[in-house]
Amino acid sequence: MILMKIDDKGELLADWDEINSLAKSFDRGCGCENSYKAKLISLIWKDGYERATTDMVSQHNQMALLLSCTGGSA
Hints:
Layout: E1 4-6, E2 12-14, H1 16-27, H2 33-70
Antiparallel strand pairs: 1-2
Helix pairs in contact: 1-2
């Protein structure tokens, strides 16, 4: 079973339904290799999403602060 792969164009392909299903089975106590891999993928993906969201909010707040300090003429 392939959960993720990179296609010929270099794009990431993932079976998210299967990843989520296996990650949930890992949470329920299933210790098979595929459920372990799926849980790792989901944790890494979630952490990356949270970091990207935090970075975007931080950049937006910095821009808003800059614009408020310069009267919007930055």
